[in-house]
Amino acid sequence: MSTVILKKQTAKMSPRVQARMAGLIAWITTTSGFAAFIRGRLVVFSDPVVTAHNIQSHELLFRLALVGDVIAIFYIAYTLLLYNIFKPVNRNISLLATFFSLVGCAIGAIICLFQLAPLVILSDIHSLNAFNLEQLQSLALIFLKLHAQGYNISMVLFGSYNILIGYLIFRSTFLPRIIGVLLAISGLCYLINCFAIFIAPAFASHLVPYILIPGITELVFALWLLVKGVNVQRWNEQASIRGL
Fold this sequence. Notes:
Elements: H1 2-11, H2 15-28, H3 31-42, H4 48-57, H5 59-71, H6 75-86, H7 91-123, H8 133-171, H9 177-199, H10 201-207, H11 216-227, H12 232-242
Helix pairs in contact: 1-6, 2-6, 2-11, 3-5, 4-8, 5-7, 6-7, 7-8, 8-9, 9-10, 9-11
């Protein structure tokens, strides 16, 4: 019900206002990048003891990373705003892109529990006396590994989303086509990286961070939306052609 209300409210806004709101939200949700950076510094997937020590020694930082992932769930609002913006280009593809993103957001919300679990396990050792310390540390790391795999699955969906949005930008007349091309390339790179992780993790380790560099386009796109918005005249022209 709340999603339907949000769609109706956004539909009444100027496309430029919607674009700038989307740009602002996109920048806010970059907290997910902060979270990934922190996890990369604290989690050692080959060593549960070191990982447990890092989390307990930097608990606040680890919790801030969790908060960063939770804030990133507001990407849902960004997704709905972009759906409205790109309806005049192709409603069906815009709807398909929205589906990919919303499912990705749902997975992102669920895997936050896997990031919270190590905090519960490592801070409540006495009530889990059926396990010894080494077992609890290993269990905490297993949850973090599940989080990482869930994150990779969500990135398959977000990579697909970027490809579709890139296509819509390219077909639109109210945004620079070059951003669409670069955004689609970033989505393709996400897909290559994720499937490489699933199929050949050793090979995937050689791809990072180079294959993720095109992802900078997402920040460029967000900045463009925030500062420039869209060409309202051309947006209205495409909307009138579609009867919107």
